[in-house]
Amino acid sequence: MFDRSRLHRLWQVRRSVQLVWKSSPKSTLIHGGLMLVLGLLPVAGLYLVKLIIDTVTAQEAPEWESIGGLLAAALSIAVLTDWLRALDAHVSEIQSQQVTDHVHDLLHKQAIRLDLGYYENPEFQDNLHRAQTEAPYRPALIIDRLISLLQNAVSLGAIALLLLAFHWELTLGLFLFMLPILFVRMRHARLQHRHWQSWTARQRQAYYLSQLLNFQDHAKEVRLFGLGNHLHQRFMDLRKSIRQDRLALSRDRTKGEALTQGCASLGVYGALAFLAYQTMVRAISIGDMVVYYQALQRGQALLRDLFASAAGLYENALFLANFYDFLLLEPRVKEPEVPCVIPQPLRGEIRFECVRFDYPHGTRPVLKAVDMTISAGEKVALVGKNGAGKTTLVKLLCRLYDPTEGRITVDGIDLRNFSSEEWRKQIGVVFQDFGRYQFTVRENIGFGDLVARNLPGQIEQAARLSGADGFIAGLPHGYDSLLGTLFAGGEELSIGQWQQIAIARAALRSAPIIILDEPTSALDPEAEAQVLERFRQIAEGRTAILISHRLSTVCMADRIFVLDDGRVCESGTHTELLSLNGVYAGMFHSQARHYRTVQE
Ligand SMILES: Nc1ncnc2c1ncn2[C@@H]1O[C@H](COP(=O)(O)OP(=O)(O)OP(=O)(O)O)[C@@H](O)[C@H]1O
Question: How many CB atoms lie within 10 A of CB 495?
Answer without folding.
Answer: 11
